[in-house]
Amino acid sequence: MMPAPIRLRELIRTIRTARTQAEEREMIQKECAAIRSSFREEDNTYRCRNVAKLLYMHMLGYPAHFGQLECLKLIASQKFTDKRIGYLGAMLLLDERQDVHLLMTNCIKNDLNHSTQFVQGLALCTLGCMGSSEMCRDLAGEVEKLLKTSNSYLRKKAALCAVHVIRKVPELMEMFLPATKNLLNEKNHGVLHTSVVLLTEMCERSPDMLAHFRKNEKLVPQLVRILKNLIMSGYSPEHDVSGISDPFLQVRILRLLRILGRNDDDSSEAMNDILAQVATNTETSKNVGNAILYETVLTIMDIKSESGLRVLAINILGRFLLNNDKNIRYVALTSLLKTVQTDHNAVQRHRSTIVDCLKDLDVSIKRRAMELSFALVNGNNIRGMMKELLYFLDSCEPEFKADCASGIFLAAEKYAPSKRWHIDTIMRVLTTAGSYVRDDAVPNLIQLITNSVEMHAYTVQRLYKAILGDYSQQPLVQVAAWCIGEYGDLLVSGQCEEEEPIQVTEDEVLDILESVLISNMSTSVTRGYALTAIMKLSTRFTCTVNRIKKVVSIYGSSIDVELQQRAVEYNALFKKYDHMRSALLERMPVMEKVTTNGPTEIVQTNGETEPAPLETKPPPTGPQPTSQANDLLDLLGGNDITPVIPTVPTSKPASAGGELLDLLGDINLTGSPAAAATPSSVPQISQPPFLLDGLSSQPLFNDITTGIPSITAYSKNGLKIEFTFERSNTNPSVTVITIQASNSTELDMTDFVFQAAVPKTFQLQLLSPSSSIVPAFNTGTITQVIKVLNPQKQQLRMRIKLTYNHKGSAMQDLAEVNNFPPQSWQ
């Protein structure tokens, strides 16, 4: 006869004495061998003890699958202690993937009808934990009977088991409907809690059940009564947590009210008063009270609540921002970010508190505060908010600078009160965080300066002073070099009226540009800007032309091929083509943001001008290749579309674009071809001016219509695209959509391109995105603005195409967006 195995407590003590992992493994293997021997000999006396030890080893991460059948034997035993360990083992070691679990069905059925409530409770717990769909179908009847019993111990366990049954077999939901009628009349808190969980599951899974509970069962008044009793009842030691009566039940009821009140006026009206009571009577000094208040805020924001109640909810979030707990502050910022589009004015009242959060030491809070601050920017507060955000840009960590700079650029483009302010703001960003700005910042600022004719002297003087002795911010140096090349004569003449002019000689200007050329901090692109600026000054300056010739000739033998080529071409201008030099280097005309519009494409260039040296080359006279435009025709089903733009046949076969998916599909509201939007990589083709061009160079709207709910246009593979909307009161045909792309996966999404297409009755314009990288773990977003002209006030429909690289693979997906809120197009 084998000696009695050691007890579980002794095994735990022995394992804890192990000094190394290898020693622990040796102890476990030795004990497992002894347990196996005992199982082989069918030792019924110590089976319970052995399975308990096996479960402990399983919890430590060691294999314990050989004990599965022993668990079933324990479940079949008549002793409660055996059953308890057997059911615990079944919940830990068995799941739907093992066929062994089906052998339990008969035992569970017998135990559900057992005379002892504790045995019945074990069976309910096991079925609710790991019951498969087959087991749930077979045993749902027994669960439903126990749900109607008068025993509160069994009813609460049966309610949770019913939740599992409904998740596994949704069609069995109606079986539990009669049993739910009296559940909320129960006094026992455990039964009430589990009943609310069951009702929540049924309402979430079935719209029919939701309608039934709203209308027939009058569920909202019952829940309101229970919640009112919880708030008004005195001290209850059994359910009290930090002075608040049963906060877990309160939170569950608030979540169920949120589901019942969503998009339902009557239900929302019935719960307005109790939500106001909870919001005003709950103690906020402890975290328990804050948890209830947070659920109350979410419920108020999700139902059709009164405006005063929504303001109360936002004020609660405002108080959260003053809390010392970082988690509460983060939760408040995240919630305000979700509500800022619908309750913009109420959130604006807490602007100063939100801006203060930019100084928080916690980076997560700082990021949320930055995103919310940009969401609060409008035409009225642009100056104050930009002052705070520029101060933040000065002092923030490097990982924030790129997103902050992009946000400032977008806000300045939308709401700039004047061109001078716009130019000053962008120059300040370039001075502070020039190496972090997106690629199109330089050409966009150059275009802005070019179009502001009255600001040329002021701008060139500011830029000249900004780069004196500091070439660390390369984008700023590039813009300065371009402007000095264009407007160097204004700098030397001292014609600045906006501020006191400085006295600069031609030689001092050339000294600066030559310093840029030889500086170790200058990139190849920056040197190209500087060399071209020097060349341009040969027509602006009169006394230093020989010096300019000398500088240009020196770089004719540069080891940088790009610089060498430019210098050789400029030397040729001085010698062979000197008669053409002044014409080729004359001042740039005012630049327009070029868009094209037709059935095949809409291209937004955002003023991305070529570097100045290329201006010396005459424009090509032959036809431009149109293969990419033809690809777009194929993308939209080009066989049936007559393009507005005349295209020149190329050697590319007509079927070359046939592999591309049809972007528009069947979107065609009027039977006419559709207008698509494409990224700015497509070549520009001359077309009639776009109707929205006038909007792109000025603030979008100072008289915006707020209250348009945002939508989630796309959510798949960790990528989420959200649309928020603005409309002008003076031009209601134009809708401005701001997209926000976020990434919840663990790796960044790179080379992100968003494309959109709408029916031809609309006109659509895509502005430049804030970045091409969607950061991982939702640590940042890409924003992009879409303008849609809808003169006929038709329902808005859109097909979007997303391309990006993720985990080393090129990803591409199409989606159709049809759930635009009526306020965005009516």
Automatic annotation (TrEMBL):
Gene3D superfamilies: 2.60.40.1230, Leucine-rich Repeat Variant. GO terms for biological process: intracellular protein transport; vesicle-mediated transport. Residues 706-821 form the GAE domain. It is found in: Cytoplasm, Perinuclear region; Cytoplasmic vesicle, Clathrin-coated vesicle membrane; Golgi apparatus; Membrane, Clathrin-coated pit. Residues 602-627 are annotated as: Disordered. It is a peripheral membrane protein. InterPro entries: Adaptor_Complx_Large_Subunit, AP1_complex_gsu, ARM-like, ARM-type_fold, Clathrin/coatomer_adapt-like_N, Clathrin_a/b/g-adaptin_app_Ig, Clathrin_app_Ig-like_sf, GAE_dom. Keywords: Coated pit, Cytoplasm, Cytoplasmic vesicle, Golgi apparatus, Membrane, Protein transport, Transport. PROSITE patterns: GAE. Its main location: cytoplasm. One of its GO terms (cellular component) is clathrin-coated pit. Belongs to the adaptor complexes large subunit family. Subunit of clathrin-associated adaptor protein complex 1 that plays a role in protein sorting in the late-Golgi/trans-Golgi network (TGN) and/or endosomes. The AP complexes mediate both the recruitment of clathrin to membranes and the recognition of sorting signals within the cytosolic tails of transmembrane cargo molecules. This is AP-1 complex subunit gamma. It comes from Carlito syrichta. The lineage of its organism: Eukaryota, Metazoa, Chordata, Craniata, Vertebrata.
